[in-house]
Every structure is written in C-alpha cells, then in structure tokens.
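Researcher: Sequence recovery benchmark, item below. Answer with residues only.
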C-alpha cells in the first residue's frame, strides 16, 4: 500500500521453481497475489520437449476418441432423443425440452452443414442409421470437442503448477477414462458440456497469471465467461460453473486484500468489474441461445399444444382461434380454457367413472376438439332459445350443456383420483337428451377483476380477456384442475374437481372459442395478442421448470447422487448383435478420485487441529501453492456435485462428469506434489508411482474397451471384467468365442432387427407428461384406422417376412447363440419374442395385401 513501509524478506528464493512468493509484513507474513515472470514462463508451454509431448498426447487422443466412430451404426441410448430434436430443428418444428438449447443448436449447425434435411426418424434405440443422417459427422463433432478437452486439461494443469511430465501423465489418464471416451463418441450433450467447462477453467486459470489490471487478464476472464455462458446455455449444471467462477473471484479477492503491496481500492475495483463480466456475458449468451432457438421453431407440432395460445398463434399451421366474437352471452357455444396448468380445455367424453357417481367423466384435454364444446344456459331457463342477446355479468348463474347432451355437474362424491383430499369433490357430466337438469348443474360466474383485462372485461364476460371462476351453487366449491392425471380408465387426461380451497390460479378459466347467432356479423372481434421475445422466453422456462419437476418420475437408468462416487453401476446405452455400449467409468481413476476426496478431507481437518494448538502448517511456498490450487478444484467438485444431492433419486450418473472432471484435475496436482514435494530429492520414486497409476488406468480401459466401442467380446472375458457385483452390463449377450462372430451376419433393417434391440426404449429426457396424454377414444380409433390404412413402400415383401421368420427359428435352434433383452437388461423369453415378431409381420402382410389391391 502507498504510505506503508513493508519489511521484505523472501522465505525461499523466487526463482523459476518457486510457486508462491511470501513476504514479511509489519505484523504478519503475506502472499503476493501476482505471479512472477519466472512462474508465468514456467507454466506456459515454450520448450520443444513440451511441444513434442503435447503432439504425442494429441495423436493418442485422436486414436482413442475417433476409433470406429461409425459403429454402432444404429441409434444409441439418448441419441434418439437428441437426434429427434435435431430433426425438429431441421423441419422448423416447435418442441419442448427440459434443458437449455445450446448443444442442440450446435448439433443442428453441424447437421445442416452436412446437408441433413430432417428426413430421418430417430424412432428408438437400435434403429439402423441410413445415408439420410450424417451421424458419423455429428459424432465427430462430439469427439473433436472431447479432443480439445484433453488439450485444455493438460494446459490447465500446467497453469496450476504441474510439471510437463505429470500434466502429460494426467492428461493421458483422462484420455483413457472410459466414461469420457464413451460420451465423446456419441450424439450426446456430455462432450460439449465438459468442453465448455474445461475451457472456462483454463481461461480463468490463465487470467490469474497476469496482473489484475492487465488487458491479458481481462481477455481471459471474458473467454472464461463466454465458455461458462455456453455451458449454462447447454445444461443447468453450467450454472454451477458460473457459481464456481464467482466464488474464485471472492477467493482471490481475499488474498488481494491480504496482499500489502496492492491498494485496496484497486483490488475492489477489478474484483467488481470481473465479477460483472462473469455474470453479464453468460446472461447475454443465454438469451442469444434462446433467441436462436425460438427463431428456428416456427411450425406447430404436438408439443406446441402445451404452450399458451398466445405463443401458439405465432406458429405456422396453428389452429388457435382468431377473430373470435368477443361478447359472450346466454346461448353461446364456447370452449373453456384453464389458466393454471398445461392441461388445456374443459372436456368430456363418453366414458364413465369406474367408481363414485359412475357418471360421464370430466377432464382437461390439451388439444382442440369438438368434445370441448359447451353451450351456456341460464340456470332457470335451460334449453330456452332467446330472441335478444344477453351478456353474462358477474354473479350470473348458469348451466353448461355438453354436446353429448349432459351438463357440467358436481355433488358430494369424492374426487376420482384425489379422493383423500376432503376439499375436492367429483365433477361429472350428468343428464341426457331432453332432460332439463337439476340444481347440482348450477354454477355462478365470479369475474376476477385483477386477472382480467382492464375495462369492459372486468364487468362482463368477454372472450380471452375475462378470467373468471365457476362456483358450484349448491356446495360453494369452485371448478378446479391441477397436474394430477386420471389413470388409464380416464385416458390419462387431467383430473377436474370441485375444490373448496386451493391455489387461486388453478380455479381460473376463460372463454376461447365463442359462437352466438344473436351477435351481428359486424360484432367486435378479438384474437390472441402476439408475444414479444421475452414473453416467449418466460413461457418456455415455465414449461421447462414444469418438465424438471416431472423428472421425479422413476426411470430404470436413474441413480442416487450418493452412489456416483462409488460407481455402483452404469447405464446400458446400446445392446445389439451380441455387442454392447455401456456407460462405465474407469474404476482405477474414478475410485482414486473418490478416495482422494476422503483422504484430503481428513488431512484438512488434522491440519486445522494442528493450527488450533499452535503448531506450524504450510511452511513452504510449494506446499502453499499445492493447497491453494487443489482447494480451487475441490471447490469446483463440490459446487458441481452437492446440488444434485437435493434433486432426488431420479438422476443419471452422467451428470457426475463435470464434478468428476474437477476431481481429475485435483488428482493431477496431487501426483505432481508426489514428484515435487513428497519425493523432492528422489523424484524418480514419484515418477514411478505416477507411471504405475497411469498404466493401471490404461489397463482397465483396454480390459473394458468393448463396452466403449461396442465391439466383439467373449462371454468369459466379460465375466472376468466385472469388478463389482453391481455392474450390470449383460455378459450373456456375448458369444462364447470370437469365431462365432465371424460366422454371424449382421442383420439388415427390418422388424426383426428392431425387435432384437430395445423394444421398450424410454428416452431419459422426456418429462412433459401431458404430451403423453391419450386422446379421446373416438379420436384414438380414428387415428388407429388412418395408421392402418397407410402403406409403407419400404416394408419388406411377404417373402422377406418368411425369410426373417425362418432365420429367427434357425438362430433360436443354435444353443447359446442368441439372447433377447429389453433396454433394462432383462432377458426376454424367446417364445414371447417370437409372438411379438409374428404380430409385427402380420401387420406388414396386411399392408402388402392393401398395397397389392
């Protein structure tokens, strides 16, 4: 500080080998924050030897990451999900997803540059790729980012103080980490996410080499912010990276405040400015990614039915009503839309409740349909035809007549699903043609003036503008709906009840379609207003958060975050043709990271106790540097792992990869400390330990690489590779010896091939339950009939079907050769498989009969 005298003495000479400079102040020693020129030179690649090592690293990484990218030549687990989104982008279709869009946008750019026209359907895991989809190019993009991540790993370790040989060894271990090798070879988000995080880490560490006020420091802070913005725009875990960078700014600021050679005001100024950069730039990138996302989704789809109609109306091909007659009155034929959920319209179909009143069901249905139509009647004049138009004002008592001749009705029966909630009663459709109804059909309109458009809509019911409640006249409860769905007997549609309490928004309704012959032809019309970008942005995020909540539903591949550090299991990505792709980490490295976390925590506690009793700790600059750098990476591990502990049990082990990456960096610095601190005078011992550690990692990779590349393996070798009883990759799928693979002919695309793969595939990222809602029975039957009448020109001939059946019998007659399984690893009964195949072939035969006629 200016005006302060500082007595300077260096604990150890600050030569090129020194990592931290410590000086004596008037009261205490303090650390110099800025790195010396020698340290900057030492941590930056500059020698021919280092450049040669880096080149060798790249060659090895290319071989591992790009090996057999074309295999499997069929859709792998979750490639069906992300591939479908790429196809939707190519066709400009609207879709909903639970994650931000950056990775999908990048894959879309690669696909479009490769000439992809969106004409491939990613139907299920195991569907064979065709020339229509540039899947190898898309996988190459993921592999390229995986290659860059390896280079960044090496550079980050060097910036953190590791010497060139330990940085090389750790990066080599990272190359042969099975989990990263697997995910960087597939059309998945994991490789881009890890790349962005690695780039953010590298750039921030690079900025620390320069003085805080230098342009170079700000340049790398900006790069770090851009990378963190891309990470957070790809997956929510990227927000953890931004938090980590912010915490590091605070961490560094504490040392800056303790550095007596730096003015306090300058330290505050640069910390605030860099903190602002790390917030503003990611926010801008996040908004830009959604701007691109929204601009590409211009056409309607099934998903678009679950966004607000204001958004739907901006999509090409929408069926949202427009130019609606705004005045709603007695005798109007209307559709009622719910405001509080994604459910949609008040609906009834000719199915009855199986219990309770056993009257006709009332549901909430998300699609425009004629069974959403209701006619407004006065409660005391049902069926009366008026001569003059009569508005509906606040407190008007009405009845709603469905086009199936029953009326909206409630009574003292328990709700069909929410029967344990005493504040909810059943709502049904009761009556028949010619029946005038009863008092339980009476509902009172209560206009919500705060929710309605200011003006006339607050005084009388106007289409779209007026938001109102329907209070049951007899019991006082209000027409209500929530996200709870009816079971199969209710066609999985949303439950509607009459609630005496509950969230206000869930009791609000408004009129969308409105027809009344008493209104003049030139009557006032209304349409949904157009949304701005920010309004669409907010609407998408409401649906994304809703989908995130729905991810709590169980999935067979999900695990608890507590099980990740022990790698108690993996995920079966692909299982076909006696081969498997299975997500599994490299146990040697994975468990070493977990063990290191425990050991370091114990060490830190011991050191704190020693410090409390007055014993010296952290005596040398090398030790101080190691702990400072390692703690930064361990903080990154904690920030990227701890939040998942609170997200429930429906998580996927691949979400552990960002935290695991920070763990690998900390392991690298620990290996470096063995060479430079623990065995400083006998460094060859440290290098031997490092070499043995990396060799064991390569051994594990080589022993399990058939699971990475989906290549041939024998049943015995597979069984011997199972280090833990909880690893469930299916060794029964493999042949007994490699000669059998030579005789095995890979099947062509056919129903047989499709059956042979994951018949029951469920993408892990689809979570918007209402999208899965079944349509009314009549509509289902109509669509089924239309599908059965479609002719598939690519379907195999009847001769080919017979050939497939014969081939199936031949294979089943060869003992021990074929095992059928679903995506969960369950072995299927051959007779059941044959039955499903026969049913599939029967449909194909029927199509060919239609075609021939």
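Model:
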């Amino acid at each position: 500080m200016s005006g302060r005298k500082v007595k300077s003495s260096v604990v150890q000479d600050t030569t090129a080998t020194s990592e931290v400079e410590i000086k004596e102040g008037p009261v205490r020693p303090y650390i110099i924050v800025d790195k010396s020129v020698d340290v900057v030179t030492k941590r930056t690649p500059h020698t021919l030897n280092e450049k040669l090592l880096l080149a060798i690293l790249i060659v090895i990484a290319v071989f591992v990451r790009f090996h057999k990218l074309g295999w499997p030549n069929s859709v792998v687990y979750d490639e069906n999900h992300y591939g479908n989104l790429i196809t939707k982008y190519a066709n400009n279709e609207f879709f909903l997803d639970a994650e931000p869009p950056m990775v999908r946008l990048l894959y879309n750019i690669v696909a479009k540059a490769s000439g992809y026209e969106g004409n491939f359907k990613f139907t299920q895991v195991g569907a064979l790729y065709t020339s229509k989809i540039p899947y190898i190019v898309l996988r190459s993009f993921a592999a390229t980012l995986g290659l860059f991540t390896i280079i960044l790993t090496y550079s980050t370790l060097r910036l953190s103080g590791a010497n060139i040989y330990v940085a090389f060894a750790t990066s080599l271990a990272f190359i042969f980490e099975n989990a990263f090798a697997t995910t960087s070879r597939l059309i998945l988000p994991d490789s881009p996410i890890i790349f962005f995080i690695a780039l953010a880490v590298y750039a921030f560490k690079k900025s620390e080499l320069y003085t805080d006020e230098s342009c170079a420091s700000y340049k790398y802070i900006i790069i770090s912010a851009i990378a963190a913005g891309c990470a957070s725009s790809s997956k929510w875990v990227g927000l953890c990276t931004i938090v980590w960078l912010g915490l590091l700014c605070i961490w560094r600021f504490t040392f800056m405040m303790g550095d007596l050679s730096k003015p306090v005001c300058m330290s505050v100024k640069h910390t605030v400015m860099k903190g602002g950069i790390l917030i503003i730039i990611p926010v801008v990138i996040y908004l830009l990614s959604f701007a691109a996302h929204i601009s590409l989704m211009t056409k309607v789809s099934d998903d678009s039915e679950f966004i607000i109609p204001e958004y739907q109306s901006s999509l090409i091909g929408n069926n949202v009503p427009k130019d609606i007659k705004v005045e709603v009155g007695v005798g109007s034929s209307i559709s009622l839309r719910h405001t509080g959920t994604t459910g949609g319209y008040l609906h009834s179909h000719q199915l009855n409740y199986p219990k309770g009143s056993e009257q006709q069901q009332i549901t909430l249905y998300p699609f425009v349909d004629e069974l959403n139509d209701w006619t407004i009647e006065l409660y005391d004049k049902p069926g009366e035809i008026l001569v003059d138009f009569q508005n509906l004002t606040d407190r008007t008592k009405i009845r709603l007549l469905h086009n199936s001749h029953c009326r909206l009705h409630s009574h003292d029966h328990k709700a069909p699903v929410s029967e344990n909630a005493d504040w909810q009663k059943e709502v049904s459709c009761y009556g028949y043609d010619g029946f005038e109804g009863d008092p339980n059909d009476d509902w009172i309109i209560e206009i919500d003036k705060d929710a309605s458009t200011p003006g006339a809509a607050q005084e009388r019911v106007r289409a779209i503008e007026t938001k109102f409640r329907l209070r049951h006249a007899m019991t006082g409860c209000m027409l209500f709906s929530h996200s709870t769905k009816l079971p199969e007997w209710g066609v999985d549609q949303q439950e509607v009840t009459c609630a005496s309490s509950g969230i206000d928004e869930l009791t609000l309704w408004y009129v969308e379609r409105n027809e009344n012959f008493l209104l003049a032809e030139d009557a006032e019309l209304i349409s949904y207003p157009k949304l701005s970008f920010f309004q669409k942005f907010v609407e998408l995020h409401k649906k994304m958060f809703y989908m995130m909540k729905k991810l709590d539903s169980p999935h067979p591949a999900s695990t608890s975050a507590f099980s990740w550090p022990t790698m108690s299991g993996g995920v079966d990505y692909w299982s076909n043709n006696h081969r498997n792709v299975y997500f599994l980490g490299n146990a040697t490295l994975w468990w070493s990271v977990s063990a290191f976390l425990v050991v370091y925590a114990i060490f830190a506690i011991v050191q704190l106790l020693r410090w409390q009793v007055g014993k010296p700790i952290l005596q040398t600059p090398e030790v101080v540097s190691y702990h400072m750098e390692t703690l930064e990476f361990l903080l990154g591990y904690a920030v990227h792992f701890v939040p998942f502990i609170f997200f429930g049990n429906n998580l996927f082990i691949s979400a552990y990869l960002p935290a695991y990456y920070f763990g690998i960096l900390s392991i690298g610095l620990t290996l470096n400390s063995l060479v430079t601190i623990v065995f400083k005078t006998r460094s060859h011992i440290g290098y031997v330990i490092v070499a043995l550690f990396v060799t064991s990692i390569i051994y594990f990779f080589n022993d399990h690489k058939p699971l990475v590349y989906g290549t041939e393996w024998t049943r015995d070798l597979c069984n011997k590779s199972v280090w833990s009883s909880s690893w469930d990759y299916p060794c029964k799928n493999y042949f007994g010896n490699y000669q059998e693979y030579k005789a095995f002919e890979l099947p062509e695309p056919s129903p047989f091939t499709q059956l042979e793969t994951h018949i029951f595939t469920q993408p892990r990222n689809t979570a918007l339950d209402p999208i899965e809602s079944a349509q009314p029975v009549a509509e289902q039957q109509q669509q089924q009939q239309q599908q059965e009448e479609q002719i598939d020109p690519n379907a195999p001939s009847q001769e080919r079907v017979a050939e497939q059946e014969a081939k199936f019998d031949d294979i089943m007659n060869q003992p021990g050769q074929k095992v059928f399984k679903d995506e969960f690893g369950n072995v299927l009964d051959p007779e059941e498989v044959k039955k499903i195949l026969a049913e599939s072939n029967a449909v194909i035969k029927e199509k060919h009969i239609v075609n021939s006629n």
